[in-house]
Specification:
Number of strands: 12
Number of domains: 2
Helix content: 40-55%
CATH class of the largest domain: Alpha Beta
Structural class: alpha/beta
Radius of gyration: 23 Å
CATH superfamily of the largest domain: Metallo-dependent phosphatases
CATH topology of the largest domain: Purple Acid Phosphatase, chain A, domain 2
Order of helices and strands: HHHHEEHEHEHHEEEHHEEHEEE
Length: 381
Amino acid sequence: MKELLFFAAFIATFISLYGLLNYYFYRKAAGCFPFGPWLRAVLAVFLLMMVLAPFMVNFISGAGVHRVAFIFAWVGYTWMGAVFLFFCVHFSFDLVRGVKWIFLRASGRSPAVFNRRLSVFAASAAIVSAALLWGVFEARDIRIKHIRLNSDKIPEPIRIAQMSDLHLGVISGEALALKVARLLNEIDADIVVSTGDMIDRGLRDVERTAAVLRAVSAPAGKFAVPGNHEFYAGIQDATEFHEKAGFTFLRNSAVSVHDHVIIAGVDDPAGRRHGINPDFFESRLLEDLPVERFSILLKHQPVPAPDFDLQLSGHTHGGQLFPFNFVVGMVYPWVRGLHKMGDGSWIYVSTGSGFWGPPIRIFAPPEITVFDLGPTGLSSR
């Protein structure tokens, strides 16, 4: 019952907010162009379809019509990014024009000179088009980020590669897996980890995509934890995919790596909303880890936990679309990057290696993060 209520609340909130963005675009477009009743109706139907597009994509892909789902996802999710950016840009113009209008009214001058709706609409559309073009290329330019951390608990160098938030699904599938696998093999890490949302709904070539990731070499092992989308896609299917891809799926458990490193992993809170392990508390897992070993916690959401040396997280996508990073920052203490905790531990928040929804990224490039861990005082690997 709780899961159903949460899902209903989420759907209602999403449709309301996304619907308002599309209504804003409708009002601005209808106010600039001499649309007749039929054209207004066509525009309204199109925008309604875009609001419902994420649900239609899931339905179409679930029915096995993958090519249609792919096209519909590209159009629908690209529009999602476009209408969000349009709102941000055009509303900024509206604010500036509003302030100037108030200033002119207060000074006794006529504000009519600022009634330039078509020019503002055209400028907003041009800025959004340029941003979309930039974002499409940025979303496919996976950066390799290097970080060095030293600890007395690590007697010899260890290299760890973190990927996160691949969202292998309707749009991103085998092609993204091939690119990520190539980069990981070039990095030549001892350990490869995934901090959630590796798989999403609608992945067409499950076996082939898993085989690509299985070919990634990691002498000390590959480890992963479930993100919220693993539970949305079905945790059993997600577990099978990770196993086929050669990853040890850590679900509220820990494993020893070498003689001096322990990797622990916990479920995303979405699992609890699905009634899975409702009585589990991560503190119970972490407090039992031997303190003389370097402990690495894989946790999808960047909410710090107690009793660890290094926490690796994702989920935020670095905001994915500027300026959405400011909204994400209101929810989580960190949106991206490395942060030192008061007790001397570290937390790293990945911007993710793929994307969700709009196949674009703006000022939040995808990444694979390489951590070179070594003893204190070590200057090179």
